[in-house]
Amino acid sequence: MAIGKVPVVLYHYEASPFSTKIKNILALKGIPHSRVDVALAPPRPELSTLLGLPYRRIPVLAIGSDVYCDTSLIASVLERRFPPSEGYHTLFPKRKGGQRADTGLVKALSMYYVDRVLFQLAADSLPYTRFPKPLLEDRNVFFSPTKPFDLTQMTARQPEVKSAISSHLTLIEEQLADGREWLLDTEAPGLADISVHFVVAWLQHRQFRALHDVLDAQKYPKSLAWLSTVTAYIDGRQKTGASAFEDITGEQAAKLIGSSPCEDVSAVGFDDVEAARLDVKLGEDVSVEPQDSGKVPSVGKLIALNREEAVIETRGSTGDVIRCHFPRLNFSIKALQKVDAKL
């Protein structure tokens, strides 16, 4: 589905909590889009074959022929490319009674505290012993390809993880103790609310039955009331139709993306100082991969680089050139010739 002449396409699967985070952001901002349902585990030919993008994390979002990886970058780009000045809701609302927004703080809270602390505790609470063997093997490769899961150890640790989640819920309750409506006492819900909400809401799913006594309304009344308020707000935004979506196939998406315009690369630019620090050069082939999990390299020609993102060109089976964007934080970028030399 296009905004003007530029289509927005979300690659997702229903069980992905991070996909839910981006769906909620699209609803909050009011951005119509198309969706491609991909498999829970690779291979995902919709990305790897058709777009030449082997990156294995989901979701992935395309705007025109620019393809964005990782929810941290997706959130920033949606705010920049669909700004409040054009009628879209903001992810960074101002504080009540003030004229300023805590943009950097919110990004850091979302990227580090929520995505890498709170979410990991939730993921550690999954009932892995009930997973089908192929799915368990895939999760093993995703998190630790050289070290097999020790299911006995993971299960034994879950009471400790449960206690840690209880402590984090106490922090959220403390944040809301003064009766504020939104987490950072803003004029409206923003990225901070969306980020914490998607993890706590995930914990309410039936697969986390062992945690349901932790989500105690008597211990965390303000947190659970806030959770319901955010859910109702997102549902209300979806009912307006502002973020209406249509389901399309991977082939349809690839054709749509490949035939669409890309953003002027000058919007990202090329920072020579940062490039020198990373020992990479404009126009050379580089490898980009996450530093923590899902460490599958994506290779292409480096065409833009700044302190927030790196952009490479890839080409899939359709023959169209695709621009793939990756965050700088929590991702590594290396010249391909140096990677090959080490091998």
TrEMBL record:
Q: Where is the GST C-terminal domain?
A: 107-256
**Annotated Pfam families:** DUF7962 (PF25907), GST_N_3 (PF13417)
Name the domain of life this protein comes from. Answer: Eukaryota
Q: Which InterPro entries match?
A: DUF7962, Glutathione-S-Trfase_C-like, Glutathione-S-Trfase_C_sf, Glutathione_S-Trfase_N, Thioredoxin-like_sf
Ranges of residues in domain GST N-terminal? 6-86
Give the protein name, as stated in the record. Answer: GST N-terminal domain-containing protein
